[in-house]
Write a structure and sequence with these properties.
InterPro entries: GNK2 (IPR002902), GNK2_sf (IPR038408). There is one protein chain. This protein has one domain: Gnk2 domain, C-X8-C-X2-C motif (Killer Toxin P4, Chain A, 2-Layer Sandwich), CATH 3.30.430. The termini are far apart. The protein has helices at about 1-15, 45-65, and strands spanning about 20-30, 35-40, 70-75, 80-85. It is an alpha+beta fold.
């Protein structure tokens, strides 16, 4: 997990003014579960400031999450860090359609 988030932070911080976003996923518990990570900085941030912002965000998520409920979001003025068990790009194929009654 640490190597993945570090790789994403470096990729985002080194992105050009129009590309300061990255995402990836890891599988754990024998590939039974997936954890998706999305990170983004605003284009006006320097590489160093982007790294600082993303590091602070990922540290904040770790301070209030625990496995197996490991998910969270930190949104600041200049960056965004998201850990979740659902990908924002590939939502679940089937939703529960029970009627509320």
């Amino acid at each position: 997990m640490d190597s993945m988030i570090n790789k994403l932070k470096v990729k985002v911080a080194g992105g050009g003014a129009l590309r300061k976003y990255a995402s990836d996923s890891i599988h754990y518990d024998g590939d039974e579960h997936a954890l998706y990570v999305d990170v983004q900085c605003t284009p006006d941030l320097t590489k160093e400031d982007c790294l600082k912002c993303l590091t602070k965000g990922s540290n904040e998520i770790r301070s209030f999450t625990r496995k197996p409920l490991f998910s969270g979001r930190v949104i600041s003025t200049n960056c965004y860090v998201r850990y979740d068990h659902t990908s924002i790009f590939n939502p679940p194929a089937k939703y529960d359609t029970k009627e509320c009654g």
